[in-house]
Design brief:
Length: 240
């Protein structure tokens, strides 16, 4: 089985090159694999499934539906930007939205899949924010507001997020080593694939006497990129 893993596309109308690259990927290379895993932040932000009516979102949803209809199993873990993707999006696209962490076998090795933001435990302020917005009560209150208001709130949150990043050390926004080790131990995996940090690399680390590997997915900027399992090994595709 061939599987593509991608994340952090941050699709939005202001970056047409990335959108074009994604649509091209769905119509081409993605169909040559058996499955596609999207590990969060497919969209720059998601204000709620009622926003599927917008032409931009409807176009992305339609392309995903065509991929699924072509026989490619497609699964998605929500990220820190699109955590409000829900049942209606899943029904309209055929994409299966699943909760992290996900365990799956790649060959004879157990792999754990995450978006990656839960591993950044040094960023205490973000983790508090993450806990708040993942609360069903907060989400219900947010989604009860008019769509235009939600768009404005999302825009404000994005602006505040960018400002807060400027005052944080890069190390704080990266994964915490102890959190990574715990995730390996809790999952029983020796492979990990995640995104979020925008720092593509493969890291080797010792966990309980064995060697584990952590693959960090690249973010997209105008071209398709990710990691593919070809049935025997993991390899990068794209140039980031």
């Amino acid at each position: 089985m061939t599987i593509n893993f991608i994340s952090d596309l941050h699709l939005n109308p202001d970056e047409p090159a990335t959108t074009e690259a994604f649509l091209g990927f769905l119509a081409g290379a993605a169909r040559e694999a058996d499955a596609l895993w999207i590990l969060g932040d497919l969209f720059e932000y998601w204000a709620g499934d009622d926003d599927l009516a917008s032409p931009f979102n409807a176009g992305i949803a339609g392309a995903l539906r065509e991929l699924v209809s072509s026989g490619v199993t497609t699964k998605l873990i929500v990220g820190n930007r699109d955590f409000l993707l829900g049942k209606t999006f899943s029904q309209e696209t055929g994409v299966d939205i699943v909760s992290e962490p996900i365990r799956l076998m790649l060959g004879d090795r157990q792999c754990v899949l995450l978006h990656g933001d839960a591993l950044c435990t040094d960023d205490v302020a973000y983790q508090q924010f993450r806990l708040m917005v993942r609360n069903p009560a907060w989400q219900a209150k947010f989604l009860a507001q008019p769509l235009a208001v939600r768009h404005q709130i999302a825009a404000d949150l994005r602006a505040k997020s960018e400002m807060s990043k400027q005052g944080k050390a890069l190390e704080i926004m990266d994964v915490n080593a102890d959190a990574v080790t715990r995730a390996f131990r809790d999952s029983g995996a020796s492979l990990m694939i995640h995104g979020h940090t925008h720092r593509p690399a493969m890291h080797k680390l010792a966990v309980d006497g064995g060697t584990s590997q952590r693959y960090v997915l690249p973010d997209w900027h105008g071209h398709a990129c990710g990691i593919q399992w070809d049935g025997k090994a993991l390899r990068n595709f794209g140039s980031r």
